[in-house]
Amino acid sequence: xxxxxxxxxxxxxxxxxxxxxxxxxxxxxxxxxxxxxxxxxxxxxxxxxxxxxxxxxxxxxxxxxxxxxxxxxxxxxxxxxxxxxxxxxxxxxxxxxxxxxxxxxxxxxxxxxxxxxxxxxxxxxxxxxxxxxxxxxxxxxxxxxxxxxxxxxxxxxxxxxxxxxxxxxxxxxxxxxxxxxxxxxxxxxxxxxxxxxxxxxxxxxxxxxxxxxxxxxxxxxxxxxxxxxxxxxxxxxxxxxxxxxxxxxxxxxxxxxxxxxxxxxxxxxxxxxxxxxxxxxxxxxxxxxxxxxxxxxxxxxxxxxxxxxxxxxxxxxxxxxxxxxxxxxxxxxxxxxxxxxxxxxxxxxxxxxxxxxxxxxxxx
Length: 364
Description:
Layout lengths: L2 E6 L7 H14 L3 E5 L4 H4 L4 E4 L26 E4 L5 E4 L2 H10 L4 E6 L1 H14 L3 E5 L15 H22 L2 E6 L6 H9 L4 E3 L7 H13 L5 E6 L11 E6 L5 E5 L2 H13 L3 E5 L11 H20 L4 E6 L2 E6 H4 L11 H8 L7
Parallel strand pairs: 1-2, 1-6, 6-7, 7-14, 8-10, 8-13, 9-10
Antiparallel strand pairs: 2-3, 4-5, 11-12, 14-15
Helix pairs in contact: 1-9, 5-6, 7-8
């Protein structure tokens, strides 16, 4: 009998519970045991945070949002925040303790579900500590290079599109410009998909530094064509030409480095539009609404397929790899390949071309 431990790290995403369900049921089919590590690696640091997962405990979790195991983006065992006697927080390497518990508890493999940060940690455990690891890609931003899609993105796009649809009626009623800030630190997949589907007038993404004058020109052009309202969709990582990305603060990430806490570009764009056009302009941030809720059919199916494929890789002992969607198939790719860069929206993609051809301003 093989014993598997599964963890969910980083930001939550719709579909995580479907992965857990598929891993547990696929392992049970083979007569194996599965344990869940709560809060990322907490269960491998403190066995009291491990939970036995059986078909009974996961029976109804597939349609649920979030993760029954909990998650964190500040739980990197190679740089774990620990408070000393003086009350100061220091980063300590506790990875050896993780490996000791992993071996002592008799685990055969660790299935790590996460985005680029979590998978980079998993890759380090594989390379530096010899842990048998298999990755499952998860991010609503869809920015992992080695897979065509990640689960969570489709649900986030559906949530954003529904919000944009509802804003059309209120914007039209008051002749307003509505600026909607969506998630997307380095990649504009949520912005381009929801903005295009929601018939936005302007879509601003991290891939295309924008000129606010051209954004305002589009809004003024709407007025000339007797359309007295506009919808602007902006990714949180979008920035004006020659300017830095707008952020609120800095935080410690799960891989032990400082990362800016984005937010505020929607308000900035709204203020600029109000000042330059004189239009009544409002902004709103969808924020974590995009992470919540029940996963769409697409995300459930992808998550279930990823979970089943991960267990097959355990059986074949193909470690230090990640399951990935390639065309219509699920295939293994090296974790090193998966975390080497983030996937951007190609500037020559049909989505970008379609947006331009139907009159959407991309800020350039």
